[in-house]
């Protein structure tokens, strides 16, 4: 954790997830699964802020994609080349979250 604190401020999500998976001794499959669930819950959380929906609806979405997340996790840990990753949009989620975090203006209107 000292190394994480030494970075100053809030570390980027991939760094924080890497530290958590290392400290908890997760194997690569568990780490990939945590990352995918974190991506899915980020979308579900954003939907609650943007859409007039029942709060249980995003929970249903997450339960619905659970098997898909497990399947993608199994595929992802066998890949050795970045171009073969099954989630080509994941870097965009990272970029958008950083843009949103650093922005001083409102990003959405309700």
What is the topology?
Blueprint: H1 2-6, H2 13-23, H3 28-50, H4 56-76, H5 90-102
Helix pairs in contact: 2-3, 3-4
| Low-pLDDT stretches | none
Could you spell the SSE succession in H and E letters?
HHHHH
Radius of gyration: 16 Å
Taking all residues together, what is the mean pLDDT?
Answer: 82
The number of distinct β-strands equals 0
- What count of domains describes the coordinates? 1
Structural description of this entry:
The protein has 110 residues and is mainly α. It is built from five helices and no strands. It has helices at 2-6, 13-23, 28-50, 56-76, 90-102. Helix 2 crosses helix 3 (28-50) and helix 3 runs antiparallel to helix 4 (56-76). The radius of gyration is 16 Å and the shape is globular. The mean pLDDT is 82.
Name some characteristics of this structure:
110 residues, mainly alpha, 66% helix, 0% strand, globular
């Amino acid at each position: 954790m000292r190394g994480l604190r030494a970075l100053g401020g809030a570390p980027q999500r991939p760094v924080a997830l890497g530290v958590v998976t290392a400290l908890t001794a997760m194997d690569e499959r568990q780490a990939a699964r945590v990352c995918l669930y974190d991506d899915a819950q980020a979308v579900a959380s954003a939907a609650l802020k943007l859409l007039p929906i029942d709060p249980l609806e995003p929970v249903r979405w997450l339960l619905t994609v659970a098997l898909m997340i497990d399947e993608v996790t199994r595929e992802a840990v066998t890949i050795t080349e970045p171009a073969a990753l099954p989630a080509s949009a994941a870097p965009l989620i990272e970029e958008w979250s950083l843009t949103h975090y650093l922005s001083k203006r409102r990003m959405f209107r309700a």
